[in-house]
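### Sample
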Amino acid sequence: MTYLLISLPFLILALILWVLHRNAVPRQLAVTAIVGAVLLVLTAIFDNLMIWAELVGYGDAQRLGIQVGLVPIEDFFYAIFVALIIPALWTRKGPPQ
């Protein structure tokens, strides 16, 4: 099983939830984009450092082969998932009273 196949159901679920709840807050698209960009940059920096320090490693057979520095592209799926799911779940609670 590849990292893509493991991540894909979670990404699809997060995207569906985000689309269903994005109208709850008018600025949600902008907020999601900013949060996503910050998370992707932080992921690139810290994952490169962790891989360089040999704290984590990835099997070659499970990866797509596309990398950003030392980081496999699949590692960014977690940041994308969080950037989509948190605003979707947050807006389900409704605005603060």
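The longest helix spans residues 28-52. This sample (Lycopene cyclase domain-containing protein) is used throughout the tutorial notebook.
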